[in-house]
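Can't paste images in this forum, so I'm doing it all in text. The chain is below; anyone willing to post the predicted structure tokens underneath?
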Amino acid sequence: MSQVTRRIVRELHDEPHLEGRRISVQFIKTQVEDRGLEPRTVADRHDIDVADVYRALTYYHDHPEEMRTVERQRESVVEDHKHLTTDPDDVRD
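Text version of the structure:
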């Protein structure tokens, strides 16, 4: 198992993530709370300590305004780049 992460930082894409990793707080929250995966499963799949999963979840819930801002920024980026994607229904064989 990986070394214990001690902090949540904002060095990557200005989004909170596990120190020394590219795993965001938002990603962990989505995996556990939205997809229903167990914290241990998320930890095992991403080679992190289960404590880091709980740290990320705690950070998410301790900073609701910051996380809403992150979510709005993600939605804005997706919307801004939507014209660059192709709808699978529009692709012909």
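Helices lie at 25-34, 39-45, 50-62, 64-81. The first strand starts at residue 8 and ends at 12.
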